[in-house]
Design brief:
Helices cover 12% and strands 20% of the residues. The protein is α+β, with helices and mostly antiparallel strands. The protein has one domain. Strands 1-2-3 form a three-stranded antiparallel sheet, with no helix packed on it. The longest helix is centred in the C-terminal third of the chain and has 7 residues. The protein is elongated. The model has no long low-confidence stretch (mean pLDDT 96).
């Protein structure tokens, strides 16, 4: 997503409260990464393995 200009919030990928990997899309883009959340902080959560397997 970074290669397509998406700006992520500092901190990178980390464990969330439920133990799943999370990261955030920054609310605002900038010159280097023009794609942001249009004023909204967006949380991305990695689906648990059983959900990934069920949808495969």
């Amino acid at each position: 997503m970074s290669a397509n200009g998406v700006r992520f919030a500092p901190g990178g990928i980390r464990k969330g409260a439920a133990g799943h990997d999370i990261c955030f899309i920054h609310p605002k883009g900038n010159e280097a990464f023009p794609v942001g959340g249009e004023g909204v902080l967006i949380e991305l959560v990695q689906a648990p393995p059983e959900v990934v397997a069920a949808l495969a």
